[in-house]
Write a structure and sequence with these properties.
The complex is a heterodimer of chains A (197) and B (392).
Chain A (H helix, E strand, L loop, with lengths): L1 H9 L9 E3 L7 H22 L1 H8 L5 H19 L3 H25 L3 H29 L18 H4 L31
Helix pairs in contact in A: 2-4, 2-5, 2-6, 3-4, 4-5, 5-6
Chain B lengths: L1 E7 L2 E7 L10 E10 L1 H7 L10 E2 L3 E9 L12 E4 L2 E2 L5 H4 L13 H8 L5 E2 L16 E4 L7 E2 L7 H4 L5 H10 L8 E5 L3 H12 L4 E6 L2 H9 L3 E4 L5 H8 L7 E4 L12 H11 L8 H9 L5 E4 L12 H6 L3 E4 L4 H13 L11 E4 L3 H9 L8 E4 L1
Classes of the chains: A mainly alpha (197), B alpha/beta (392).
């Protein structure tokens, strides 16, 4: 604990260092922010499904399905973590798949539930979020794609005199320092070889 | 002044910040004329390196013109001098500096106590990096304060060489060079290099310059592979063929003598390499810092008695390293941040005499104001981006 406290106290900028006067544009795009918001939403929904499954089952009129709701909650938590990570495309993609699964689960419930109104509202909310997820997923894929054909850098050897002339060229004026040597040198006694029988 | 400032994961901003000032007699301040985005800046961008603070100026590849000097530089620098800034800050007086282990300088890390708690003992200070290495403001800015400026600089002689030809003396050229030197390359060596990013491109050229018989480079991006081939390497696209089988073939069934990891903590994740998927999942759940697929592969393919050289950056804990294989094969492991100035005389001479022109690696040359967008372009490998130079 002391170690953590000491380290936390040490992480502070030195007094003389430049400080931000005015902040400018960021590398973080609108889509990145949308993905993060959806990720946090997933975490919140996932926690609610895991810890308040009974209340959700009651609201939808599907008592006895608490286990299924908790399973979906764990799925939401996974999607949330991925959406907040660098693999946000995968995270949002898993949200799109999850939306489809949610709707496929809710549609039959609409017939059997004694609280059809609540199920209808839930379906409408899922449909709306699914549309948003699909838009963000598609746009992220487009934004992050390597769409251009790769360039050919075959003419960039970095050796103005050509590769063959460069091979070993540094050895004219350079010898591996002793503290970097691994192999025995010619001016040192060779490693003895086992005599032939 | 304007600078690129870290505000959190994937959040680099083009901010207005206060100007740096001389704080110590051994300081100097430069007006930055060119700076670059390094692959290790992406580890900060992805928030994989601990102990960053919102508001930190990033960047550790910079050069420029001296505009202000402290009173204790003893004539080593004067206003108007053109210098390249090594990314490792060193004092020149401590025991490690005396041994030319400049990146391990015992005095330049101003947060040494904090790093010692995490690492056991502290290493040297670095520009524009984590507070574990001093939290010094970086060079992706209009001005930069250089501590220990009588040592931490590469003074450029009167020359017609451009910034683009000299800038990479700050990091990627000596880092690639040290990676190759650590291999103690012999004339009959087969050297395998993982990754074809900027440091790997320099490592390929360094291995050629040091006389390797064969250099094999491994990546999956066509533009990077084409650049590697141009520099004299045989290439393997790991998405199209087996790295293990091809390396076996290229080394006459013995395995490469020397292996260089220029990838580090963020190895490519693909379902065809299940360990990379597992590493990514654990990294996401904060159960592992780094994705060490390359280390595993190098240990497996390297010739018994061979050398593993690791310039790729690792941040902390890694899982499932086949240490038994490493031990039984008697491999030598060499790694570390680069002792930049140790290699400067050799590398500067090779540039000046036209043996190497490091500007070959630049694919994008843009104003500093486009920095936030270029971080994205570099991260996503869009527009065949390999190396970005920024002009303040």
């Amino acid at each position: 604990m002391t170690l953590v406290t000491d380290m936390t106290q040490s992480i502070a900028r030195e007094p003389g260092d430049p400080e931000v006067v005015e902040t400018g544009h960021s590398s973080l795009t609108g889509l990145d922010k949308a993905a993060r918001a959806l990720g946090w939403f997933s975490l919140g929904l996932g926690l609610a499904e895991v810890f308040a499954a009974g209340k959700i089952a009651d609201t939808l009129g599907v008592e006895g399905k608490e286990g299924l709701i908790r399973t979906y909650g764990v799925r939401e938590l996974g999607a949330g973590m991925m959406s907040l990570s660098l693999n946000k495309e995968t995270g949002i993609g898993s949200r799109v798949a999850g939306d489809a699964l949610d709707m496929a689960t809710l549609l039959p419930v609409l017939m059997s539930s004694r609280k059809k109104g609540n199920v209808l509202i839930a379906l409408a909310v899922v449909a709306g979020i699914a549309a948003l997820d699909t838009y963000v997923f598609t746009a992220l894929k487009k934004e992050n794609a390597r769409s251009e054909p790769p360039r050919d850098f075959s003419d960039r050897s970095g050796f103005p005199g050509g590769v063959q002339a460069a091979r070993g060229a540094a050895l004219k004026n350079f010898e591996t320092p002793r503290d970097f040597q691994v192999t025995t040198r010619e001016d040192q006694p060779p490693v003895p070889r086992l005599p032939a029988i | 002044m304007k600078a690129l400032v870290w505000h959190g994961k994937e959040d680099i901003r083009y901010d207005t910040v206060s100007d740096p000032e001389i704080e110590d007699p051994r300081d100097a301040i430069i007006k930055v004329t060119s700076c670059a985005i390094c692959g290790s800046d992406l580890h900060l961008f992805h928030n994989f390196i601990p102990a960053m603070l919102p508001g930190d100026i990033i960047g550790h590849e910079a050069m420029g013109e001296v505009v202000e000097t402290g009173s204790g530089l003893n004539g080593s620098l004067k206003k108007g001098d053109r210098i390249v800034v090594p990314f490792t800050i060193w004092c020149g007086e401590c025991d490690q500096c005396q041994r030319q282990n400049y990146s391990l300088c015992q005095r330049s890390n101003r947060k040494a106590d904090m790093q010692a708690k995490a690492f056991g003992y502290p290493t040297g200070g670095l520009f524009g990096y984590t507070h574990l290495t001093g939290g010094y403001p970086g060079g992706q800015a209009e001005y930069l304060r250089i501590p220990f400026a009588d040592r931490t600089q590469i003074k450029v002689p009167e020359t017609d060489l451009t910034d683009e030809q000299l800038l990479f003396l700050s990091d990627i050229l000596p880092t690639g060079w040290q990676a190759a030197v650590q291999c103690d390359i012999q004339p009959d060596d087969v050297v395998a290099i993982w990754g074809c990013g900027p440091v790997a491109q320099m490592a390929i050229r360094s291995a050629i310059l040091l006389g390797a018989k064969k250099v094999v480079a491994i990546d999956c991006l066509p533009e990077r592979l084409s650049m590697a081939r141009a520099g004299g390497a045989i290439t393997i696209n790991f998405m199209e063929e087996s790295v293990v089988e091809r390396l076996d073939e290229e080394s006459d069934g013995k395995g490469p003598d020397k292996c260089i990891d220029c990838v580090g903590m963020e190895s490519h994740v693909t379902p065809s390499l299940p360990d990379t998927v597992m590493d990514r999942a654990k990294q996401m759940m904060m159960m592992e810092n780094d994705r060490p697929h390359i280390l595993r592969e190098m240990i497996y393919v390297c010739r018994p008695g061979g050398v593993l050289s690791i310039p790729g950056v690792y941040g902390g804990l890694v899982d499932k390293i086949p240490f038994g294989v490493l031990m039984n094969k008697g491999l030598t492991v060499r790694t570390g941040q680069t002792h930049v100035n140790r290699w400067t005389p050799t590398l500067l001479r090779l540039i000046e005499d036209g043996t190497i022109d490091p500007s070959f690696v630049i694919t994008h040359n843009v104003p500093l104001s486009e920095g936030p967008e270029m971080y994205k372009t570099f991260e996503k490998k869009q527009d065949s981006c390999i190396k970005v130079v920024l002009k303040p």
